[in-house]
Amino acid sequence: MTWLGAVPAWCWWLIALVVVAGGQQYRVAISHSDTAQARTELSDYRLQVAERDRRAAAQARTEEQRRQKAADEEGEHARKKLEEVTGRATAAESAAGGLRGEIDRLRAGRSATCGAIATQQRQAGTSAVVVLGGLLEEADRMAGSLATALERSRVAGLACESVYNALTK
Q1: What number of other Cβ atoms are within 10 A of residue 6's Cβ?
Q2: Fewest CB atoms within 10 Å of the CB: 35, 85, 89, 106?
Q3: Residue range 123-149, pLDDT digits in tens
């Protein structure tokens, strides 16, 4: 008999069971180690993504604040220009009012000096002065309102262009 035959069969089964159980225990330990490493890598990845998101949000806020500041500055500049335009329009309206007063004075003077002229000639002359004076007044009013509207739209367009240029730097 050999020494292998001296060991009972149930011991061989026990040895095989211990070897298989040990192998399984080793596989479980390695699996736990791999799982822990994967969890660590996942946690690191999540931290990296969170940090990237935080930086992107901060950068977006900074850019939005820069754009808002540029738009506010250009808006303030446009408001000042519109105030200047309004002031100039008011001054022009005042000057136009003076011209209209002068036209009224000339009409009145024309009526007074035409007393010695014949009635027909006076009526024809008076009506011509009245018509021309009315046309001049109306043209002056319209030119003033058109000039004001044109200047306002020009200032608004320039402000819009400035805001666009400031935002696309």
Answers
A1: 8
A2: 35
A3: 555 566 777 777 777 887 888 788 888
SS (H, E, C) the chain: CCHHHHCCHHHHHHHHHHHHHHHHHHHHHHHHHHHHHHHHHHHHHHHHHHHHHHHHHHHHHHHHHHHHHHHHHHHHHHHHHHHHHHHHHHHHHHHHHHHHHHHHHHHHHHHHHHHHCCHHHHHHHHHHHHHHHHHHHHHHHHHHHHHHHHHHHHHHHHHHHHHHHHHCC
Select from 111, 149, 115, 142 the least CA-distant residue to 128: 111
pTM passes above 0.90: no
Contact criterion met (CB below 8 Å) for 110 and 125: yes
Could you report the per-residue pLDDT of 81-129, keeping only the tens digit for each? 888 888 888 887 887 777 777 777 776 766 555 555 545 555 555 566 7
Q: CA 168: distance to chain centroid?
A: 11
Q: Which amino acid is at 108?
A: A
Q: Are 125 and 117 in contact (CB under 8 A)?
A: yes
Nearest-angstrom CA–CA distance, 137 and 139: 6
